[in-house]
Amino acid sequence: MKSPSLNHTEQQEMHLTIVRLVGAAFAQITRNLDIGSGELIAAFKEGLLQSAFRDNPRATVAEVSLQTGIDRRHVSEFKKKKSIPGLYKQTRLGLIWQELKWLAQNRYTDGKIPKKGSTHSFESVCKAYANGSYTHTAIYNELCRRKVIRDHGDSISLCQNHLGMIEDKEEYNKIVALLLARLAQSLTLNSRVTENQDKNFIRTVYSSQIPEYKMDALHPLVHKTLQRHFEEINKLLSAHEIDVRPGTFTPYGVSFFEFGRQHILDNLAWDRDDD
User: Fold this and answer.
1) How many helices (H) and strands (E) does the chain have?
2) Looking at residues 8-17, what average pLDDT do you find?
3) Whether the predicted pLDDT of 1 surpasses 50
4) What is the CB neighbour count within 10 angstroms for residue 49?
5) Is residue 198, in this structure, part of any structural domain at all?
């Protein structure tokens, strides 16, 4: 049966709902990946332009600017150089880190930077780059959370060469980023193909009638079923490979993911608050 058409107000509400869902999803992911909003927005704009010109290489600057909402100057610059100079701006924390790194390498032979002092100290660096925006304590706590500084009482030292993501999350973050890229590719393809067989490639099976106390018993059963499917698909992929080096062709594969175990996330959040 054909779905009833929506009026203008309903279409607007639907559009806003979709935008909020996408925004909330990316907000949660970027928080987990320790990506700042400035970095994400810059990468998002660049991705929009790449996609727009890939879909229509002959598109004009005005057309792409209208489609993406990005300033025509940035679009014009991107069209010439395939990137936008100055789009990625160093964050305040990044500037503070660079200055601390310089002090550790050039000012103090033991690498220990005094916490307090009017010049050449952690305090003075924070004042220079974040005065009025963030407190010294907030900056100190964030650098500790990222495990990039070591406390020596009245001084600090750097224990990594880059600010980057938290070290023990690096491999996980790479996997998440790659999975998101593959999911986006699959969704784009699914929106453009006309054959129903291909459209069914993205399918979701779920239930909203399962209480939390049954989740722990259900999860291993689902995991066992998925493991069987993984093995079957792996055999199919292996049967169609030819004798070339890994990485020769564009990767092809199938991903499974689970959702809805919110009670576990809630418990993890409580554990973090208790620390």
Assistant:
1) 11, 3
2) 85
3) no
4) 24
5) no
